[in-house]
């Protein structure tokens, strides 16, 4: 089936999303830092089972085609994204849905699953973290300058945003996420993990250059029954 692309007003902003499939199991795909449905989930939108699933991929506010507004990173930006994501799915008339989130989208999905347990069916996260350590801050600062990124990763984002917005938003992200390191235990959402009641699957890449594996192990340990 084809992929529809549309915008819908949610919490005072116009959020862009793509939707495909007609299955009874609704799934929201949550992209990572600077990501969009198009850049992060092309293969999933194309290849996930359209009979089993109705697949929605969203662009969080300030990312992809959900501009304006420009992206900013207040202390509660993950909570704001979680509320936007859940409210988007409700605006699209899905009563219950699963979340598949990677990187920042994984953090957003963890918060959404904890805060809206009656709405979330299942949860899959990969490359996610529930806290920020000093070592993480060092890693983040290593990607602050987008001119040092590999062409493969940089090209689709430069095409999406133009160089200036891409470079400035990446710097703002590094500053925004690094602030969590000032919290006790570098906390982002550690206290919420025990509130996640849905079946949860955690995936981690051994060679993930941005998120050390200890983060995945922590999430697994603190979400009861997760795999």
Automatic annotation (TrEMBL):
Q: Which UniProt key words apply to this protein?
A: Hydrolase
* A Gene Ontology molecular function term of the record: serine hydrolase activity
* Pfam hit, one: Abhydrolase_1
Does the keyword section mention S-adenosyl-L-methionine? no
Q: Which InterPro entries match?
A: AB_hydrolase_1, AB_hydrolase_fold
Chain ranges of the AB hydrolase-1 domain: 26-139
- Gene3D superfamilies in the record: alpha/beta hydrolase
User: Can you tell which superkingdom this protein's organism belongs to?
Assistant: Eukaryota
Query: This protein is called what?
Result: BPHL hydrolase
Per the record, the gene is: Bphl
């Amino acid at each position: 089936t084809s992929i529809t692309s549309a915008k819908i007003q949610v919490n005072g902003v116009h959020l862009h999303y793509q939707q495909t499939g007609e299955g009874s199991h609704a799934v929201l795909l949550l992209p990572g830092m600077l990501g969009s449905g198009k850049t992060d989930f092309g293969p999933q939108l194309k290849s996930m089972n359209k009979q089993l699933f109705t697949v929605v991929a969203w662009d969080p506010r300030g990312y992809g085609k959900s501009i304006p507004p420009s992206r900013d990173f207040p202390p509660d930006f993950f909570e704001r994204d979680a509320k936007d994501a859940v409210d988007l799915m409700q605006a699209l008339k899905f009563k219950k849905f699963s979340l598949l989130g990677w990187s920042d989208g994984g953090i957003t999905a963890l918060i959404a699953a904890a805060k809206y347990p009656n709405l979330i069916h299942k949860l899959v996260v990969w490359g996610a973290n529930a806290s920020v350590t000093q070592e993480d801050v060092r890693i983040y600062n290593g990607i602050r300058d987008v001119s040092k990124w590999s062409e493969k990763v940089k090209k689709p984002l430069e095409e999406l945003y133009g160089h200036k917005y891409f470079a400035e938003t990446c710097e703002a992200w590094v500053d925004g996420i690094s602030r969590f390191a000032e919290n006790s235990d570098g906390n982002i959402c550690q206290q919420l993990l025990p509130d996640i009641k849905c079946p949860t699957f955690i995936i981690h890449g051994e060679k993930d250059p941005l998120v050390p594996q200890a983060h995945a192990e922590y999430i697994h340990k603190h979400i009861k029954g997760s795999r």
